[in-house]
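Lab notebook, bench 4. We co-purified these components, and the gel suggests they stay together. Before we commit to crystallization screens, I want a quick structural picture of the whole thing.
Request: model the full complex, all chains together.
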Amino acid sequence: MQTHQAKRVEITIEAVMEGRLTKALVAAGVTGFTVLPVLGGSGRSGQWSREGQVSRAGGMVCVVCIIRPDRLDALLDAAFAVVERHIGVVSVIDCEVLRAERF
Amino acid sequence: MDGMLSLAANNLLSPIILFFALGFLAAFARSDLSIPEAIAKGMSIYLLFAIGFKGGAAVAANGIDATLILSLAAGLVLSFVLPLVAFALLRAMTGLSVTDAAAVAAHYGSISIVTFVAASSVVSASGLVAEGYMVAVAAVMEAPAILSALWLIARYDKGAAGMDAGLMREILLNGSIVLLVGSFLIGAITGAEGMDLIAPFIVAPFQGVLCLFLLDMGLVAGRGLRDARGVLKPGLFAFGVLMPLVGSGFGLLAGVLLGLSPGGVVLFMTLSASASYIAVPAAMRVALPEANPSIYLTLSLGVTFPFNLTIGIPLYLAVATFVTGG
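Here is the predicted assembly.
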């Protein structure tokens, strides 16, 4: 089956920043993304768990978007402007998709 | 003095405090006891709905007077001023940076609605009646402290981020405030008839739901304190206990000057003494991401919340009763 190259960008960020990030992604021309809950983890800011969080302040979410390679720089610029001062991780991996016109 | 001790003992042996203690100890013992997130959220919605509606119905029964407006104004002023007091104390007592001190100060100018609900329960159990509009005062005191903290930061650090329109909207329209104020208004509009209709749902089960909710809060507070023991230096711990007493003093002054009932004074003291751990942490993560969240969450949830629940509220009740002669 014919497949097409694409970039999968995963942005793990504080839950309170989710709305700002997705708004910036849409403004940068991203046509679709998926938001996933994050159960817990550990990093430079210490270990944390979703268990026992009383507000969204302590939670994290993962925003996943798959885009055409030529749109990557615009997406990363938009994402970085939002996540720069905040706890989070941005990663990019190569992937392949079946229906290129959707991205 | 005997009366105060007996009041404190009664409070410590009440089901809500004992369930909180159970959760706290279970968390420290690393028990796997937990309340599902969705159920905890559902209980908090129920408590806000019930306390808001009851407050509105009480206002409908007693009418609106000038004291209501003055109480709202006093709550607003206190929420702006208390962070400045907290900031000065933090800078004097701890080695916190300006950013961390301002973030912590914002929490102490805002309020903890669960502490307010617990205090309302203690006031009712003591046979006192508080002004129904104290619910509206609680809602008014939620947000101004955030502005004070951002002003403090801007004063010391010109390059720091400030408030944007999106953040302001999120603070003013956060779910807790909308539900509390909405239920209050519906209670005020529907009055005694509305109360009769839903009383079986919001009166009789209230104490049981509050117990279960405080069990969860005990678990949350215990886990937070257990995981952040390294953060809690003696100066910070002392602030977490001293600041509620200082805040309650401001609340006492405001309540007495306004001529509130003894129950109303207790609630004003409790509001001024409590520290936010829901609305303000979320706002601080957006506006002041450089501030360390484990400091302000541990202080407000792990130190001040348990202090207010176990020692503070009965103390405020005893002092308010003594001062007002109620």
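Chain A has a mean pLDDT of 86. Worth comparing against the SEC data before the next meeting. Residues 72-83 of chain A form the longest helix (12 residues).
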